[in-house]
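Incident log, structure service

09:12 report received: a user says their structure output differs between two submissions of the same chain.
09:20 pulled the input from the user's history:
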Amino acid sequence: MVKCDYCGQSAERVTGKEIYPTRFDLHHKTFYRCSPCEAYVGCHPGGDKPLGRLADSQLRKAKQEAHAAFDPRWRGLHGKRREAYRWLAEGLGIDFADCHIGMFDVAMCRRVVKLCNPGRIDMKSGVWITGKDYVESDCQCDVPPWEECECTAPKIEPEQLQHLREIVTE
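09:34 re-ran on a clean worker, output below:
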């Protein structure tokens, strides 16, 4: 029996046709669903063992973002998924046995994204900035980090500036 983490009720076993009526490729798959909470989880192929925990729309979105950030890491290791999960467990400070995105809550999924995509929160927009847009600075100006600004935030060191110029112009 699968219980809903949100309301404590038992989840019902349904087919993909009930969860994704327009996704014909999922109609044959098995899911567990808590109708009152609109939470569901898929099952392992050919069985009824859940792939993780029941997830509402917010948690489903967080899990998708966590997988989008993490999965390229293990695929980049030529399918060495187990090694990548060991890295993830170490980075999150949790036991390897507990390291499964399907079992994570929203906060842990966000930690996965931050670990896999180092960056910072843009204080004006609240958006997590990664990749070539990421600059470790306390500056709140819209001025690129290699240009002078009027704020009093700590400035970036000259050797970091050269690196930033190279990244941004790639």
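09:41 both user submissions now match this output. Likely a transient worker issue. Closing.
09:42 reviewer note: Strands lie at 12-15, 30-34, 39-42, 119-121, 128-130. The helical segments are 16-19, 57-75, 81-92, 106-116, 158-168.
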